[in-house]
Write a structure and sequence with these properties.
Layout lengths: L1 H18 L10 E9 L7 H15 L4 E4 L14 E8 L1 H18 L16 E6 L19 E7 L4 H11 L7
Antiparallel strand pairs: 1-3, 1-5, 2-3, 4-5
Helix pairs in contact: 1-4
Length: 179
């Protein structure tokens, strides 16, 4: 929970001063973290599905929800109702623990890491990070890996403007590249 304390003691005063807010509740904060695995070519393989589920459980500490295809796409051999991905949503204490692990352990362990792109914000105040290899997370031991797959992490914030969301991530310690 050190990251949450850092947010309260350091980030809130800095952002208040930077953006001229008078009320603490105007400062952007983290609302949720969504960790997602798209199965891609492994849709047909039950073993791959099981491996992806086990990976998400280890990384997040929660049971993933399977996402189903809404419609059939014959070119990709997907039928309506097939499992095409898995997702876990973290809130509260688990979210803060995951963010701390992400900043301090997982991102530095990423191969050829040169900082996060400052353009990965969407219009609703979310920031997305894609990992090509799930072995960047400390819970995954490289000697146990059966198949390497990607992981998508989306950080949901209640920032009103892109500048506020960028400042929140930068101030709390995310290694964003300079624009």
């Amino acid at each position: 929970m050190r990251l949450k304390q850092q947010y309260k003691q350091e980030v809130i005063p800095k952002l208040k001063e930077q953006f001229g807010h008078t009320n603490t509740h105007e400062i952007p904060t983290f609302q949720k973290v969504t960790v997602n695995i798209g199965l891609g070519k492994g849709v047909q393989d039950a073993k791959y599905l099981e491996t992806a589920e086990r990976t998400l459980r280890r990384i997040t500490g929660q049971k993933p929800i399977k996402t189903l295809a809404r419609k059939s796409i014959s070119n990709f051999k997907i039928r309506e109702g097939n499992v095409v991905g898995m997702v876990v949503t973290l809130r509260g204490a688990k979210m803060w623990d995951f963010l701390e692990k992400l900043i301090r352990v997982s991102l530095p362990r990423t191969r050829d890491f040169r900082g996060l792109s400052p353009t990965s914000f969407d219009g609703q105040g979310n920031y997305s990070i894609g990992f090509r290899e799930h072995i960047a997370f400390p819970e995954i031991r490289s000697d146990e890996v059966e198949a390497i797959h990607g992981v998508q992490v989306t950080i949901g914030m209640n920032a009103r403007r892109r500048e506020e969301a960028h400042a929140l991530l930068k101030t709390i310690g995310f290694p964003l590249k300079e624009t």
